[in-house]
Amino acid sequence: MKRRVAAGALSLVLAARFSLAQASAAPGSSIPPLTSRQRADRMRILSPEDRAWLTVYVAPIILPAERDLFLQLSEDYQRESFKTDFWGRRERPSLPPPLGPGYEARYARLREAAAEFYDGVDSDAGRMVVRKGEPASIDALSGCDGVYRQAEIWSYRTDTSRSDTRHLFYRPSFGTARKLWIRGDREIFQTGSCLSTFEQSCEVASSGSALKTRDAFCPMGAIPKSCGSACMVAELATQINLRGLDEGSALLRAPAVSTEGLDGLWLRLATVSNSSAKPIAIEGPTRRPIPTNAELPDTSSEWTNERIRETILALPRKYREWLDLAGPILAREDLVTFLKLPAVERDAYVRRFWKKRAHVR
User: Fold this and answer.
1) Tally: H helices and E strands in the chain
2) Is 335's pLDDT higher than 70?
3) What sign for the dihedral angle of Cα 181, 187, 192, 194?
C-alpha cells in the first residue's frame, strides 16, 4: 500500500515540473510549444552566452522542439545537461555525415570553413556547409563563364548506392557571395548571352555550331554562347526542378536527427516557471519540533494536486532537486508534510527523512 502511495507522490513531483503547460503541448509530445511572444520573453532572460549559443551558434542545426525545451529550462545546470544531450544525439554512430562521432568538434570546424572559404556562415554556400558539411567535390564548369555567372556544381556523397546529390551555385556578380540556384531563377545567365534557358544552351552545345541555332534563340543576328558542360547543367537543372521547394529548404533545414528521448530529457530537466507568479505563503510557527506522520493531523485532502504543484514550483532549487531524488520513495502524506513546513524547518526534515530511511533498511 505504501508503494502505491509513494508512486502517487512521485507523479505529483514530476507533474509539478511539466504538467501545468502540458495542455498546450503538441500531440504525442509532453514538451509544450511556445508562442512567438513567449519565446521572445524567455530569450530576454537568458544569459548573453546562452542566448548566443541558441540564436547564433546552433541556430542552423537545432530542432524547434529542442529550442522550445531549452527556453523553458530555468537553471544553469539544466541547460548544461541539455547541451550534453544535444551533441550526444548528433554523435550516434549510425548517423550520416557530417553527423556521427566527433560531430561537436566537426561542427565548429565547419563554421570556421564557412566563414573563411564559403562566403560567410550567413551566405547560401555557408549555410549549406554548416548544415551538410563541405561538398565532396566542386566543378567550376571551366569554359562556361560566357554563359553562366561563375556557376559551380557541388556534389555530396550519399549513404546509399544512388548517385551523389548535386546543387548548382552561381555568383550574381563578380566577387559576390555564391547563390543557390532554384527553379525559375534566370539570374544565373550572363547578360551578354542571348540564351535564357538551360535547354537552349544544351541545344546550342549539341548542334556543334552556334550559327545553326542563332535565329532560333538570338535576335538581330547575335551569336549564342554555350559550353561543353551545358547539357550536364541542363540535366541537373531538371533534377533540381523536380526537387521543388526542397532545394531551397536545404539552406534552412536542420540535419535530420531523431527526437526519440527528447520527451525523457524534458521530464528530467524541465521546470515550468512563471516569473510573475508570487511564492505561495506557508503559514506556521517559526520554530517547532519536526512532526512525524503520526503526530501530524491528516489534512492531505485539503492539498489538491494543483496546490501541491504550485507549492513545489515555489520552492528553492535545492528542495526541488531533493524532491526529484526522493520522489520514488516519498509517500503523498510525506510530501504534504514537507510542503507545509516553514522554510527554517525543511533542512532538518530532509536530514530526518534520510536517517529514517537508513534505519528502515
Assistant:
1) 16, 4
2) yes
3) positive
